[in-house]
Amino acid sequence: MGAPSDTSRYAKGFDIPVRGDTITADRYISQEFMALENQHLWPKVWHLGGMVAELEQEGDYVRHNLGTESVIMIRQADSSIKAFYNSCPHRGNRLVLGDIGGSDRITCGYHGWQFAPDGVLVNVQDPDDFPDGNPCGKVTLSEVRCETWGPFIFYCMDSEVKPLLDWLAPLPERLKDYGLDNWIRVMYLSADADFNWKIIRDNFNESYHLPTIHPELSTFINDGLPDTLFEMYETGHNAMWMKGHQATTRNPEFHTGDVPSPLDDVARAWEVDPADFNGHTGDIREAIIAAKRRLGPERGFTNYENMSDQQLVDYFHCTLFPNLTITMSPEQCQILRTEPHPTDPQKCVFHHWVIAPPVKGMTEVETPIGPMPLEWAENRHSVYGDGQSVGYVADQDLSIGTSQQQGLNSRGFSGCILTHQEKRVQRFHELLNDYVHPDVSTDIINSDQLR
Ligand SMILES: [Fe+2]
């Protein structure tokens, strides 16, 4: 990978070295690579399983399916949360079939075995008919590590992986001032999609596609390369700061002309007159920072006071290894991720959540699929392409995902050619390579140079 022409535009951390492993199509297509991920990747990373607030009382649970695996997270009597594999120890039947529920017993639908919320078997049919005696009180569900960060529940299937907050570093610290703890998930969409899960990971690890795929963002998000800050962290996660409330510097006329729409409406909503900024529209960002500081608290945005100016108006787009994206604005947190299909490497499951602060007096939140009530939303699952939106911008990304998967199947494709600003894509694949080839020296999987 050659040096960029102007290194000053890259944030600290962007100098983390990459090897230049060639990114070929097999990892998006082959059963062999999928099997390596199932063996070496998914069991060894932390997964976002649900939200703490969904579990109000003892016995409440959420379920998370991941490829062929399924895990349930259950509120305990002492208010802690335990996670278990969603599999009956009797004959392996999946215990919980819904996304969310609650009961003082988890009952297997096959032979009626019952488990307490702490995973202990408490009731079976014909308890005296076991060669080793009644199994109640002895048999338990198989437990999975479970920890929380802010409003989120995570689980991990491996005992060696570091604790959750160390794993997530430095993002809990970087996101602390948004005050996420009491935010409400107002949108929860998922969809089966016809591409490998990494297609969208790559997409979220670069902003190079924005002018082509999301041109409508350019009037209120500055996607100009010199204005975008990329960050890479030692823990393998990445982030990007995109200037908000400012038009792209890729189109100078947006800055020297009148304030473009919908930025003008956003300004008016904060009592800033866009006419005052015609000819120098880039300055409107500072005016909105001042207006948010002045008007935010009385409008119920109590979390503004702890935020930096950057957090008040910009988008902080965090891509956590391997498959979780958290995009922050002061009024909204979007969670986007793709998860592996149980059997087909050329398919995945896409998730899109919107989480919003409980602003006093607010009853509705503007989301990527339109206004939603400011209250908890349950999962709405669809198949991508059936006409149900998974979010306006996400729809655009998913449409490319489908055509990219098709193109990757061509025998004419021989490996990615990346720009410097796509270094996060390169790094993601190298971390992945290290996971799926744990016994192979990095020298062997190195290619000579990033092509
Ligand atoms: Fe995109």
Automatic annotation (TrEMBL):
Residues 46-155 form the Rieske domain. The keyword Nucleotide-binding does not apply. Keywords: 2Fe-2S, Iron, Iron-sulfur, Metal-binding, Oxidoreductase. Its cofactor is Fe cation. The keyword Cell inner membrane does not apply. SUPFAM superfamilies: Bet v1-like (SSF55961), ISP domain (SSF50022). This is Rieske domain-containing protein. It comes from gamma proteobacterium HTCC2207.
